[in-house]
Amino acid sequence: MLLCADIGGSFIDFALVHPDGRLEHRQTVPTPVADSENFIGALKALCAPYPGIPLHIAIAGVEDPLTGRVNAANIPCLNTLAVREQLSHHTQRLVRIGNDADCFALAEARFGAAKGHRNVFGLILGTGVGGGFVLDGQRVPGLGGVTGELGHAPAVIAPPFLADPEEALSLVPLFPCGCGQSGCLDTLAGARGLERLHVWAGGRAETSHAILTLWEQGDAQATKTMSVWMLYTSAALAHVINITGSTVVPVAGGLSNSAALIDALDRAVRDRILVPTTQPLLRRAMLGKNAGILGATCLGPEMCHEPC
């Protein structure tokens, strides 16, 4: 068995997890975001009834494999802390840490929509855009602990309906991104990006849910917005599929609640990849709020003896 925690900027979701994925003694506590001692203390208290059982953590951040420090924008107290080392010392147990998007992909590969696939790219279309890459049941380590982050790289391309590429580049919005760059996919393809894109394309301010509803109803302005959204998002995913060779893409996040969106995006991606396929690549994720905790179980060898 493992102790697993899914840690975000608001709450710590904690449970004892059995090898078959069954959760016991689940509880939720607020995340102490401003004080590292309180953060360590909260996890120490959660672990105390279970001496010696390893602790696996899915966190909204990235652990640098060289320094052990976690870069978590919503949990600033961790940014100067060797989190794994400190937690291991104070809880007296083995600790492993993984990015929450990686854990989502691991969970869907082992227990969910991508079960049975060796090569999985997990896509999160939520407030922003995230991703995780899993091969043979294991996350793929990357530079600085980062792999699969398709949301943060310049994603500007020239729309095909404009003949002059220079004109296209002058019209495409280069919105500033929280990562410090401009024109990232995260600024366009997540829920906030879609809302921003809709206003830029000539629409009035709407929620992402309202835009999708209007699009599904055939509204002309929403259709225009979604054509631009689809162009950028499908291009980025086509790059991912061509590079990774993933055979399935489970999709989570608020935008994935639109089956029409996932179906349309799947068709657009399959139209742009190098190897044609008639089989859908994108699938709605199955595990919901359990994905972080279940994915954390696969961060080490205890429960990942074989490929997912």
TrEMBL record:
One matching Pfam family: ROK
Gene3D superfamilies named among the record's database cross-references: 3.30.420.40
Enzyme Commission code: 2.7.1.59
Catalytically driven reaction(s): N-acetyl-D-glucosamine + ATP = N-acetyl-D-glucosamine 6-phosphate + ADP + H(+)
InterPro entries named among the record's database cross-references: ATPase_NBD, ROK, ROK_cs
Broad EC category: transferase
Keywords of the record: ATP-binding, Carbohydrate metabolism, Kinase, Metal-binding, Nucleotide-binding, Transferase, Zinc
This protein's name: N-acetylglucosamine kinase
Organism: Acetobacter farinalis
